[in-house]
């Protein structure tokens, strides 16, 4: 089993270094430092609240579902960050490229990725064509976390799974 874990860690680290160091570009620096905030607590809560308060019909329901999914999904995030205290990549790999105000809490799982998927899924269920924009956008937010040196790929994959699962459960429960 340790050979498998070692192999996975090795390849994850290689993928992290590729995204964080090899594809660096001035345009991507500006793009990812801005778009990453769409997965932050302020943006996801405000967007969900605005949809819930100002939206009509299925948009209002999607906002309420997103608020519930955000709440539900961040319970396991908080538990996992305490139970599996994984250091952020920039603290482990000195060559990591980071940007201003790097986070100091634990890396696993990605809260930003969890949040953006918790928000995105109910909207896509309400308006399927929005998925053409929102699904890639959610993956870009997750990728931004790796690019900015804040998370390993598995942190973002688990965040994606947590946010998506919480949202699917919320939408199913609501319906």
TrEMBL record:
Family annotation (Pfam families): PAP2
InterPro entries: PAP2/HPO (IPR000326), PAP2/HPO_sf (IPR036938)
GO terms, molecular function: hydrolase activity
Record's subcellular location: Cell membrane
Main location: membrane
Residues spanning the membrane: 31-55, 61-80, 116-140, 152-174
Domain Phosphatidic acid phosphatase type 2/haloperoxidase: 61-171
SMART domains (alphabetical): acidPPc
CDD domains registered for this protein in UniProt: PAP2_like (cd01610)
Topology term for the membrane: Multi-pass membrane protein
A Gene Ontology term for the protein's cellular component: plasma membrane
Protein name, entry field: Phosphatase PAP2 family protein
Keyword entries, A-Z: Cell membrane, Hydrolase, Membrane, Transmembrane, Transmembrane helix
């Amino acid at each position: 089993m340790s050979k498998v874990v070692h192999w996975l860690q090795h390849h994850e680290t290689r993928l992290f270094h590729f995204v964080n160091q090899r594809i660096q570009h001035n345009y991507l620096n500006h793009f990812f430092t801005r778009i990453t905030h769409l997965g932050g607590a302020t943006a996801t809560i405000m967007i969900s609240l605005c949809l819930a308060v100002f939206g009509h019909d299925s948009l209002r329901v999607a906002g309420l579902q997103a608020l519930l999914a955000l709440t539900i999904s961040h319970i396991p995030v908080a538990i996992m960050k305490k139970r599996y205290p994984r250091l952020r990549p920039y603290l482990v790999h000195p060559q990591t490229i980071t940007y201003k105000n790097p986070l100091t809490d634990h890396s696993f799982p990605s809260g930003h990725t969890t949040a953006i998927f918790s928000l995105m899924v109910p909207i896509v269920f309400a308006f399927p064509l929005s998925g053409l924009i929102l699904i890639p956008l959610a993956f870009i937010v997750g990728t931004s976390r790796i690019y900015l040196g804040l998370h390993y790929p598995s942190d973002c994959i688990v965040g994606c799974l947590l946010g998506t699962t919480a949202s699917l459960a919320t939408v199913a429960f609501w319906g």
